[in-house]
Amino acid sequence: MDSLYPLLVSLHGLAGVLALLSFWVAAFARKGARPHVLAGRAYLLAMLAIVLTAVPMSLNFFVRGQTGTGTFLAYLGVITASSMWLGLRAVRLKRSPERFLNRAYVGVALLNLACGGVVLALGLQRGLTLLIGFSLVGLLLGAGMLRRYRGGLEAGPWWLREHFSAMLGCAAATHVAFLSIGLNSVVRAAGGGALPPQFGLLAWVLPVVAVTVAGVWLDRRYRAGTLLRRTG
Questions:
Q1: Which residues are CB-contacts of 115 (< 8 A; sequence separation ≥ 6)?
Q2: CA 41 to CA 48: how far, in whole Å?
């Protein structure tokens, strides 16, 4: 594992750069247009590469006894994969809302709640602000999914709201990972030394606040009052 780890880190970092670039291309491109679709596909492929390389990387941290870092990386993989799944699924099932809220949906919701709880407990135990704050992503994601499962989907472009919410969740994970982990490596490589410890808090606060504001704005723009109930 140790001999492969530098290669995994390089692939993970390269995928992260591609994810950041393709996300912003998709964000600024006209929604539904070919550039948006192509950039979105590139983003999902890059995010898939990030998740796949994160699995052995997190295991390597656990083997080394760095359970805090290993847990955080594994947790990022779970919430990122969940958001990818939700965003892609919403587009594919936009004409079948009754199929969107199924048992798999509930399972993913419970997984995020459980992982968020583990990260919160570990953060409280070790006094790690980053873990405590970021545990809210999984907890809120899981709770929101269960609320929609019980209450149903809103009428109108429900799939669009689910899609952009999921993609914003991916964006939060991508930018937090870069700011809290990747940026340190970039600064060190440039000879700038390590970032101040206080930056760790801003690394997750800024992206989460930014995507929350963007999510509220987009949700108000596309919100409809009626609910589409699940069937069965």
A1: 74, 75, 78, 79, 138
A2: 11
Tell me the C-alpha to C-alpha distance, in Å, between residue 183 and each of 27, 45, 69, 111, 140: 22, 22, 16, 29, 26
Q: What are phi and psi of 190, to 5 degrees?
A: -85, 0
Q: What percent of the chain has pLDDT over 70?
A: 84
d(CA 181, CA 134): 14
For residues 230 and 183, give the distance between their C-alpha atoms in angstroms, rounded to a whole number. 43
CB atoms within 10 A of CB 110: 13
pTM of the model: 0.79
Q: Residues with Cβ < 8 Å from 146, sequence gap 6 or more?
A: 106, 109, 110, 113
- Partnered with residue 153 across adjacent β-strands are 228
Token pair 């950041």: residue: 20
Domain residue extents for the chain = 5-228
Alpha-carbon distance of 23 to 3, in angstroms, equals 31
State both tokens at 135.
């545990």
Cβ atoms within 10 Å, residue 153: 22
Output the average pLDDT for the chain. Answer: 82
Helical (H) or strand (E) element with 153: strand 153-154
pLDDT tens per residue, range 8-64: 878 887 888 888 889 889 888 887 788 888 988 898 899 899 889 888 888 888 888
DSSP state of 33: S
